[in-house]
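Thread: adenosine-5'-diphosphate complex, take 2
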Amino acid sequence: MRRKGIFIVIEGLDGSGKTTQAAILAKRLFKTYNPLLTAEPSRGKIGTFIRECCLYEDKRLPTEAEALLFAADRIEHLQKEIKPALEAGRLVICDRYLYSSLAYQGSAGLSLDWIKVINSRALQPDFALFIDVAPEQVLERLQRKKSVMETLETQRKVREIYLRFVENGELLRVNGNNPKERVADELYAKVLELLKTIPGSVS
Ligand SMILES: Nc1ncnc2c1ncn2[C@@H]1O[C@H](COP(=O)(O)OP(=O)(O)O)[C@@H](O)[C@H]1O
Ligand SMILES: [Mg+2]
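Output below.
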């Protein structure tokens, strides 16, 4: 019997291919798992506010306030979208989650412990993957208007924090420097391996 839901998180720098890869993964898992593909900031009220106010220099709030908003959005996202899907037995793929808060607000100088405290009510994912791409390469890929979170120095700091969680085993690294299809194959293979470790999740 399948246990209730599976919660997968995809993390990485801006431009690392999270949205691209989350969509390919959802497609590949579609028949067996009917996945819910979702992202943070969410499309709820707080997530919409974050998109309007926190991503561009002229509108930014104090870093602590931003961290609290991201944590509040996460709670709303969990309550309205993620938990209902998991309770219905679905697999959820979330493009950015808790590790984005740790990496981005952490790189902006906040203590990782405090970010963990304000996120202590956030559900732990079953597994979290980090698509690792060189900071220079992500900036090359990003042709759209760069937000303040996308300078080279920021990207380097953010990646360093992500890598700490790779080292302690909380994030599983996927090499994102390769062409899309190759990254997708590696990601899919890793997810299938991980799914085997969850009793009842492989049909
Ligand atoms: N493996 C890849 N190689 C080259 N370009 C890529 C790769 N993956 C994604 N891209 C391109 O990089 C840009 C950012 O990808 P996206 O999936 O939106 O990243 P993210 O969601 O992590 O910001 C897009 O233009 C996308 O087509
Ligand atoms: Mg994206």
